Model the fold of this input.
Amino acid sequence: MRDLADFIISLIANDMSGVFNVTGPETPLSFGALLDTCKIVSGSDAKFVWAPLEFLEQNNVAPWSDLPAWVPNAGEDAGFSRVDVSKAVKAGLTYSSLATTIKDTLEWASERPAGYEMKAGLKPEREKELLELLRVR
Done:
């Protein structure tokens, strides 16, 4: 959000207007690379288990809500996050590093009130259930 806010302020300051795609990052980023960077920045010892798209669909795992930041590159969602941002970059849009974004997000998350429940993502018991189903598959 900071990158977008800075970009909007820059557009206003430079009296620029137009339609800009401002998704990110500037270069392609795999979901695996995102998770690996999260693991490094957070100091986590997480172990990732990859599930086939077919398994996720059969078990009603919803893209974006059950697995935030993940949208399959198949069907009507193919290319969902592949938007050309070059016009915005040429107009001054810059992106914070992935590590900085993760660090800032973790800091924000640590400031939430006790008992705060995320509205997106799998609940721990559902994740455990899916991992067991995947294991016996």
Remarks:
- The radius of gyration is 18 Å.
- The chain has a mean pLDDT of 91.
